[in-house]
Fold:
Amino acid sequence: MGVSPVVRPGGAWLVVALGALSSFGPLCLDMYLPALPQLPGDLSSTASAAQLTLSACIVGLGVGQLITGPASDRFGRRGPLLIGVAVFVAASVVCAVTTSMTLLIVTRLVQGAAGAAGIVVGRAVVADLFAGKVAAAYFSAIAAINGLAPILAPVIGGQVLRVGTWRTVFWVLAGIGVAMLLLAFFVIRETLPPGRRSSGGMTDDLRAFATLLRDRGYTCTVVAGTMVSAAMFGYISASPFLLQDAFGLSPQWFSACFALNALGIVAATQVGRMLLHRTTSFALLSWGVGQALVGAVLLLVSVLAGWGLAMVLVSLFVMVSSVGLALPHSSAIAMDRHRRIAGAASALFGLAQFALGAITAPLVGLGDRTAGLALAVTAVGAVLIGVVALLVARPIIETVGTTLPEHLAPS
Structure:
């Protein structure tokens, strides 16, 4: 035989493994944030250069998906995944021992690109094994696990700094990478048999991306979901200035509000899973986009009318928790349309998510950061684009089924 058997649907460990691997983004970014102020002094550099280490990781997380996604269509899921996680471990070790800010920036780019393997291959594995509502349920379960990462990562980073330095944070990331490598090795088997792999090179990769971009159902669904997450990225960037500087929240209360919103995302994913047997992923995606619009508009009115902290917190909770409905179900619909090039489809989805997040972050910083107006306007604008995309996609997207495709049906 020589080839690992294709995994059959089911298994809590598969959900745990895919959820953990999809959390590389928050782990790379959020765990590292508390240590950022230490870098300039220790590496004889500047605060601007220290910020570049964060930007380099974000770029790596986006671009890395464009590399690993098509590679997993060509060589199978398991190999690129294991190589990516192994490189992540090695890059984390280099980050921990480097004495050069330039090398740290470059290595953070590599670390992000390697960590992207877990994100992009995770979505492709679900698309290989599941379809329709079954896939949507798995995407929701994975999102629930992934939703815990933004809560735990800053807390872990802060606790690590109590006993160590920024270098210790990278050693911890290396250890987490080793644990994820073992989890991936023992739990995730090959899900893309040789007969279903692409046989070409770069030309086939470009052809796959062209196919995706020509499909309005795919592109509009991706835009609808990722515009909601773009509003969330804006919240992540602007909320420290709005809540701490403008409303005077202590770091502890700010962390509590941040955790509450993250728990809202987790709760929304579970509600979506429970509702799947009564409705479709497109209906749940529509609900998520609509909820995000309500939250964004309420935030804008609250800021303009000066309604105070309580209404701002309510608005943010409504807007941010909608990600738990929008992202899993936009993923399910988009991936279901292109299972034969699931790696490329997953890569383009991930790139859109991180690229829109990178665009949103500077926009929410325009003007007075403590006023919250830039955040509110940016969020409303982003979600309105998502609404338009949803309206375009509606007549194209067919009702999502509940059965597996024939080639995945249990024998």
